[in-house]
Amino acid sequence: MPLEAPTRPRTWRRTALVVLAVAAFTVATCIPAIGGVELDFAAIAKNWRFGAEKIGQLMQPDWTFLPRTLQPMLETLQMALVAAVASAIVSVPLTLWAARPTNPNGITRRLVRGVINVIRAVPDLVYATVLVAVIGVGALPGVITLFLFNLGIVVKLVSEAIDSADHAYLEAGRAAGGTQTQLNRVTARPQSMPLYANQWLYALELNVRVSAILGIVGAGGIGRLLDERRGFYAYDDVGLVILEILVVVIVIEVFSNLLRRRLV
Amino acid sequence: MNAATPDAGVATTPASWPIRLENVTVTYPNGTTALRDVSLEIAAGEMVSIVGLSGSGKSTLIRTINGLVPATSGTVTVGPHTVTGLRGRGLRRMRGHIGMIFQGFNLAERVDVYRNVLVGRFAHTPTIRTLTGIPTARDRELALRTLDSVGMLDKLWARAGALSGGQKQRVAIARALAQEPSVMLADEPVASLDPPTAHSVMHELQRINAEQGLTVLVNLHLMDLARQYTTRMIGIRAGEIVHDGPAGDATDADFERIYGRSIQPHDRLGTAT
Fold first, then answer.
1. B120 vs A193: CB contact, 8 Å cut-off?
2. Which domains does chain A possess?
3. What DSSP element (H or E) covers A45?
4. Is the pLDDT of residue A197 over 50?
5. Considering only CB atoms, which chain B residues are within 8 Å of A176?
6. How far is B232 from chain A (nearest CA, A)?
7. Residue A81: how many CB atoms within 10 A of its CB?
8. Helix, strand, or coil (residue B24)
């Protein structure tokens, strides 16, 4: 005789309702009459020819331009690395202070989280613009911008990962009469290392991409060259730079995956 | 250092401490009352088991002794310390004299055995020194000695996560012994282990009690382990003590009263191989 399975609870009604609500809300945000954004799709049909020419040029990178890109690319890589390493070092204590299991003190934890949220709220282009004005055009304002940008990402993501993980070893340390600093130094920091490593490597990759934009305001690296060529409408050169950034990002990703596998 | 502690100046065998609970009630923030008006006296050097089903309150009871769970009302006294009311530095100093082992071992799995054992020296080490990562010669000596006593010295540089369950619990015992404790607490120390390993860990606790005269308090839910390894058995059910007597004399009827149901085969672990 076949087994009688218990009746499966029916949830499709609620699922359908949620999907419908999300769809309706999304459509509503695109209706200007009720305060939505205006999406003029007709403009694509009108103007696509102007863009097509640029895209055509982008797709045909000018390889003779390559030698001129190497020095700025190297500068970008150096900026990305320096900022990533500096933020990695500073992120270690800040992250442990920002997570509940490694900092039960609500006051200092909220203080660190607040500072990190302020750092994250300011757009990176604003940092770069202000720092270029203060320090001058060059790599340093770029490095400081990337450092702050990385710090925000690493501290937020790693402290949240620590919050959601299980930390039985902390109970043992507490039972042995350790201070939170002792527990963090000897157990929580090494236990959290894979979480850190993931975000540090991600930050490094992000830096290469972000520095392409920071160059627009004069914060050094490949971005400055990219902005210059764009200014001259030399889209074949721009295409080459984008291709180079793609290659570098892929190389970093391959390298990160190798490292990650060894770390875990 | 705390000159009032009786073990001050004694390097090898610290004094064993008695434990006293007076009308202790624990109510968790979610409203659950885990202990109801529990009074209990344990003499220095006793080997006591606390027996009860899961949820009976035995985990809470053992945690009130080192203040991991604060008593809502009543008084807990361990040796010269009144646990209830202690906070901050005073609480940490007192905990430094109470070793504890856990069902889940609670080791830092990515950290080597050596550093896991040094966790037991925290209360006796200034935070600044811990930050440097360099233990004193005496702490190093203690870590090696306690690891050797549980037969784990050859695993000194192994990651805790790479060890088997029984090995992990031995390292956890070494960590507790490195505290040079005056009381040893064990919360279901063998519930995650297979029967032969469980017996060897219970033997270890028995040996610590016999050789060092250490007060040992161990939570168990298996009746044969309580009978075989401990001298006094306290039964707890729904947060109240329902039995207290010599462990060897405890009858099946006593266990049925503690469990609140008839005895089932899984209430026994079985004999050692």
1. no
2. 60-263 (1.10.3720.10)
3. helix A42-58
4. yes
5. 95-96, 99-100, 119-120, 122-123, 175-176, 179
6. 24
7. 15
8. strand
